[in-house]
């Protein structure tokens, strides 16, 4: 689709390195994502996909390079400290980043409504009435308004994940990060979560998505990125990635996934 091709990138990574002890997880990653673009990250387990999202979300520090969101450098290595945005600006940008994880991470002692309103009230300083109105509107959006007063334990996995998406949206993010959000779900529940993600894409949300759902990648992504051993090996439109990948590593990975998909 390339909805905003040619515009200044909304998310930009330059030479990003990340290690855990002796393990080098990201090796000089360069990546640009335009506002309104949907980029899907694929690759084998341990290739660095989730770590990349965690670094963008400021859940992990980086050893080298810079991460820029909304024209502000929010994370960098020690050699680039002069480029780092002021602390107040970094806090503003951090609030623009929404993330949904594989595990739903809902607070079990809070109702669905309370889970969604907690951050708007504490971080955005919304009144209880404003936050409740927002939460109910978002629950309508994900098809769960009738579950507002239920506790997470009463919900299916797919419902909990949709609540997690609503909770992230309550902060009015400008970019959404999705990390394998369907991998813990039973197959019959996957579709209801992907439906919400498709709607967000259609509405122009900037999205970085780690997933093994190849149909979603083919139909929704503007670009598909294949990572291997902490590097971006291929960055292509889905029509190219799925029909004529340029690397043997990507071709082998996709062949296995396609065979598994065809067998279902």
Structural summary, described in words:
Helices cover 37% and strands 24% of the residues. It is an alpha/beta fold and 264 residues long. The strands form 2 sheets. A 6-stranded mixed sheet has the order 6-7-8-3-9-10, sandwiched between helices. The chain is globular. The two termini are 29 Å apart.
State the gist of this model.
The protein has 264 residues and is of the alpha/beta class. It contains 9 helices and 10 strands.
Silhouette: globular
| Spatial strand sequence of the major β-sheet | 6-7-8-3-9-10
Structure annotation, total helices: 9
Spell out the helices and strands N to C: EEEHEEHEHHHEHEHEEHH
Regions with pLDDT < 50 over 5+ consecutive residues?
1-6
How much β-strand is present in the residues? Answer: 15-25%
Query: Quick one: how many beta strands?
Result: 10
Helix content: 25-40%
Q: Characterize the largest beta sheet: strand count, sense, and whether it forms a barrel.
A: 6 strands, mixed
Q: What is the end-to-end distance?
A: 29 Å
Structural class: alpha/beta
């Amino acid at each position: 689709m390339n909805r905003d091709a040619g515009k200044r990138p909304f998310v930009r990574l330059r030479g990003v390195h990340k290690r855990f002890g002796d393990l080098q997880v990201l090796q000089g990653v360069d990546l640009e994502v335009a506002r309104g673009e949907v980029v899907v990250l694929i690759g084998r387990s341990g290739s660095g996909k989730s770590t990349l999202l965690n670094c963008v979300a400021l859940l992990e520090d980086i050893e080298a390079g810079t991460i820029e969101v909304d024209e502000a450098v929010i994370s960098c290595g020690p050699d680039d400290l002069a480029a780092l945005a002021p602390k107040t600006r970094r806090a503003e940008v951090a609030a623009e980043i929404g993330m949904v994880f594989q595990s739903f991470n809902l607070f079990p002692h809070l109702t669905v409504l309370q889970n969604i309103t907690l951050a708007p009230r504490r971080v955005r300083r919304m009144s209880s009435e404003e936050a409740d109105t927002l939460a109910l509107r978002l629950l309508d959006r994900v098809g769960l308004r009738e579950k507002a007063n239920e506790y997470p334990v009463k919900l299916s996995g797919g419902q909990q994940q949709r609540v997690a998406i609503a909770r992230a949206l309550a902060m009015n993010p400008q970019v959404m990060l999705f990390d394998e959000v369907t991998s813990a779900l039973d197959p019959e529940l996957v579709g209801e979560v992907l439906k919400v993600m498709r709607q967000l894409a259609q509405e122009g949300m900037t999205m970085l998505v780690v997933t093994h759902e190849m149909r979603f990648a083919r139909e929704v992504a503007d670009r598909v990125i294949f990572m291997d051993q902490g590097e971006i090996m291929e960055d292509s439109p889905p029509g190219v990635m799925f029909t004529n990948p340029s690397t043997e590593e990507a071709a082998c990975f996709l062949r296995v996934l396609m065979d598994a998909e065809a067998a279902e």
